[in-house]
Amino acid sequence: RLILGVESSCDETGLALVALPEAGAPVLLAHALHSQIDMHQAYGGVVPELASRDHIRRVVPLARQVLSEAGRRIDEIDVVAFTRGPGLAGALLVGAGMACALGVAIDRPLLGVHHLEGHLLSPFLSADPPEFPFVALLVSGGHTQLMRVDGVGRYTLLGETVDDAAGEAFDKSAKLMGLPYPGGPHLARLAEEGRADAFELPRPMLHSGNHDFSFAGLKTAVRTHLVRQGWLDRPDALADPANHAALADLAASAQTAIVEVLLKKSLGALKATGLKRLVVAGGVGANRQLRSQLDQACGRRGVRVHYPELHLCTDNGAMIALAAAMRLQTGQAVPTREPSFDVKPRWDLAAL
Ligand code: ATP
Ligand code: MG
Ligand code: FE
């Protein structure tokens, strides 16, 4: 069976074709992505109305592109999968609307997919796919969760952030430091030149005794350091080469604080569950310091760590087509003929 995946929950339009063999793992045939980062950069964040309008422009050409790259015809698609939520309502509606229209046009059923389940299952597309059960650290722009995963659709929430997500902590700190949107990768690059012990930053809830996180205090602490230097809201000072080294120190200190919390909490969840496998998913999973520290600490404990391929850490259509394929394969979902625009901007993964 052939599954088309459509992702449009935020600021990337992603389309992909996945083949689901009678037996064996789903195979990614083609995927295509358009990122709106350049468009939103001028505003320092995603502008929802602009995002929706751009998804409309991109979604059909990208669908044509993946069909042609995979050498398939439109009527060979068996199921049209799309991101049903969570995300921006208007952006989700574009993907849902396109998927429904296509489903009606070629007389094929639809399957709404949970965006975070896409992130969570994306490591199954890597060369070294995980096996169930595992602990999942889901670290994206909007979410930070630890989960116990026993199979497709069998997710138990162990803990999550009580305020900002890890990606948000990266992005908000980076924005305060005058770095372009989305700040995570920029802050990570700057951090490589800095000293991680230069600034004292908080590690909130590190010893909270549960699997929850809190990152809002970190952004506030970064802001306090910038105020002290007299650099807050002063683009001239932030761009001054004379201040570059100190900013790199601040970036390194912030990254280290975030990574330390993610690392310790992941180890805590592994210990509590007794599981020997960790899956890291979501955009922050691309962070090199996080990967190397997890690899080291888990290696010492006999825990295997699995990541999505780097280019599949952030939003993409491949993970949506894959999640649909794995749900179909395990009988965890029934595609519907009923075109539905019932997107879910807020949607709890553990409730699936
Ligand atoms: P959600 O999936 O929760 O709805 P999202 O789709 O916006 O949120 P993702 O696309 O998974 O999130 O990830 C984007 C986030 O990942 C951004 O916050 C970005 O800064 C962060 N990110 C990407 N690369 C890196 C990196 N190398 N280091 C740190 N953060 C990174
Ligand atoms: Mg994005
Ligand atoms: Fe995402």
UniProtKB/TrEMBL annotation:
GO biological process: tRNA threonylcarbamoyladenosine modification
Stored InterPro entries: ATPase_NBD, Gcp-like_dom, KAE1/TsaD, TsaD
Localization, UniProt: Cytoplasm
Keyword annotations: Acyltransferase, Cytoplasm, Iron, Metal-binding, Transferase, tRNA processing
Reactions catalysed: L-threonylcarbamoyladenylate + adenosine(37) in tRNA = N(6)-L-threonylcarbamoyladenosine(37) in tRNA + AMP + H(+)
Record-level GO cellular component terms: cytoplasm
Any Pfam family matching the protein: TsaD
Job description of the protein: Required for the formation of a threonylcarbamoyl group on adenosine at position 37 (t(6)A37) in tRNAs that read codons beginning with adenine. Is involved in the transfer of the threonylcarbamoyl moiety of threonylcarbamoyl-AMP (TC-AMP) to the N6 group of A37, together with TsaE and TsaB. TsaD likely plays a direct catalytic role in this reaction.
PANTHER family cross-referenced by the UniProt entry: TRNA N6-ADENOSINE THREONYLCARBAMOYLTRANSFERASE, TRNA N6-ADENOSINE THREONYLCARBAMOYLTRANSFERASE, MITOCHONDRIAL
Cofactor note: Binds 1 Fe(2+) ion per subunit.
Similarity section: Belongs to the KAE1 / TsaD family.
NCBIfam families: gcp_kae1, T6A_TsaD_YgjD
ATP-binding found in the keyword field: no
EC number of the protein: 2.3.1.234
Binding site for substrate: 138-142, 171, 184, 287
Gene source species: Aquabacterium olei
Residues that coordinate or bind Fe cation: 115, 119, 315
Signal peptide: none
Requisite cofactors: Fe(2+)
Domain Gcp-like: start-end pairs: 28-321
Record protein name field: tRNA N6-adenosine threonylcarbamoyltransferase
MF terms in GO: iron ion binding; tRNA N(6)-L-threonylcarbamoyladenine synthase activity
